[in-house]
Amino acid sequence: MLDIHFIREHVDEVRRAIEVKQVDLDLDRLLSEHQAVVRQRQALDELNRESNENAKRVPSASPDERPQLIERGRAIGAEIREAEQALREAEARLNELLLLVPNIPDPEAPVGGEEDSVEVRRWGTPRERVEGMRDQVELLEQNGWAEWERPSRIAGARNYMLKGQAVALEMALWRLAMDMLVARGFTAVTVPSVAREAAFIGTGHFPTGRDQVYYLQEDDLYLSGTAEVLANSLHSGEILAAESLPIRYAAFSPCFRREAGSAGRDVRGLIRVHQFTKIEQYVLCAADRDESARWFATILGNAEAILQALEIPYRVIMTATADMGTGKVRMWDIESWVPSEGRYRETHSCSELYDWQARRSDLRYRETGERPKFAYTLNNTALATPRIMVPFLENHQLDDGDVAIPAALRPYLLGAETMRAAGA
Questions:
Q1: Which of 2, 58, 252, 397 is the most exposed place for a label (fewest CB within 10 A)?
Q2: By three-state DSSP, how is residue 302 classified?
Q3: CATH number, residue 32
Q4: CA 245, CA 125: separation in Å to the nearest integer?
Q5: pLDDT higher than threshold 70 for residue 45
Q6: Is 184 a residue of the active site?
Q7: What does the alpha-carbon distance between residue 403 and residue 11 come to, in Å, rounded to a whole number?
Q8: 253 is a catalytic site residue
Q9: Domains contained in the chain, number
Q10: Is 195 helix (H, G, I), strand (E, B) or coil?
Q11: Are residues 216 and 86 in the same domain?
């Protein structure tokens, strides 16, 4: 959320952000609603002033004047209640619009949609698809590492079950990623997969994006698609000491996503499933753009280090404005190479939001002797399974269908150098 005073003072910048991020928002209407709130507050202030003056006159009024003043006081009270209700309604209308206001994108961010993203760098040599090479589904099925039909019959489409060594692989991936983050100063936390609506509003997943989230009506709770939702609300309402920053979480949680509107896309295998597990990097830091930029580079570097340890070729792209999300100043994606498709697929996303989330979630800190200020937030996927298993399996497959294990991962798999089918 942007501060309304910032919006009024930077109308042209905000209008351009709305345009390049392709947000459905009428800025003129928002400004008009703000003026309505200002007028309503002024009217309420005037009524309160009149009420106070009227009340002061009652004790010294003559017997003939007093009943009239008391009656006028009752009338003013009724007008105040009506004005308060009108103000609440006006503020609610304004707040609905403020929640839609996009953050100002970084000047370097490419303008446009997905096709306009700009490649920053690459690491590793993409493996070419050759005759006999298997894709993720063929590898999983040949080795008895996954099932699709039985879980889907029970839980619906896009559900799956990992088996045998694939389960061990998934757990090994979690441990490697978490150990690397903890060694780099992050605090490992496990967070719930459910949250109240306010947490989703705080991150910016709501009010838009509701169609992607599972809702538990009887409990008035939502299933989260990322640990960011929970991590971002852990310190809501607190005033943190400046010296306690930055706060760095490596947040682990099961995640859920409806994937509404994606029918026909990536329905085969492990790319686009309803239930998955993520380790999310989350940083809450001081409101300083240089400090934020340093953490952006750090969490992006952490994700790259994990992929390098897994020996998965990847590229880093600078995401274009219409594809980066409403609240983000910068979003850089990491795309891992998938040999069977002959292309890179997004596996990590690194976001810098300044105080946009902090204002929505009331995340503040205080320097000694100063007033509280809103913090800055950043987040980045460290690892998401089972998606990362797609490039992992395909890039490390051997001619016979076994899968080689990179050296960095072997300690988490009892020193094994390959994954083999049961009984092989």
A1: 58
A2: helix
A3: 1.10.287.40
A4: 39
A5: yes
A6: no
A7: 56
A8: no
A9: 2
A10: strand
A11: no
Active-site residue (options: 349, 352, 361, 394): 349
Does the annotation count 193 as an active-site position? no
**Which member of 91, 346, 410, 420 is catalytic?**
346
Phi, psi at 319, each rounded to 5°: -75, 140
Q: Which amino acid is at 211?
A: D
The answer to whether residue 423 scores a pLDDT higher than 60 is: no
Q: What's residue 422's pLDDT? A: 59
Q: At 132, is the pLDDT very low, low, confident or very high (cuts 50, 70, 90)?
A: confident
Residue 237 has pLDDT above 60, yes or no: yes
Of residues 131 and 332, more confidently modeled: 332
Asked about 257 being catalytic, the answer comes back as yes
pLDDT surpasses 80 at 228: yes
Assigned domain for 424 exists: no
Would you say residue 263 has pLDDT above 60?
A: no
Parallel, antiparallel or unpaired: strands 247-256 and 187-190:
parallel
Domain hosting 66: range is 4-98
**Which two three-digit tokens encode residue 56?**
């002061």
What's the N-to-C CA distance of the chain in angstroms? 56
**Active-site choice (158, 360, 364, 387):** 387
Distance of CA 338 to the CA centre of its chain: 25
pLDDT at 129: 87
Residue showing tokens 């459905």: 24
Nearest to 380 by CA among 289, 282, 284: 282
Active-site annotation holds for 410 = no
The answer to whether position 106 is within a domain reads no
Q: Quote the DSSP letter at residue 243.
A: G
Which residues have a Cβ under 8 Å from the Cβ of 118 and sit 6 or more positions away? Answer: 110, 317, 318, 320
Out of 272, 315, 410, 420, the active site residue is 272
Q: Other C-beta atoms within 10 Å of 423: how many?
A: 5
Confidence band for 260, pLDDT divided at 50, 70 and 90: confident
Q: Which of 127, 134, 158, 257 is catalytic?
A: 257
**pTM recorded for the entire structure:** 0.92
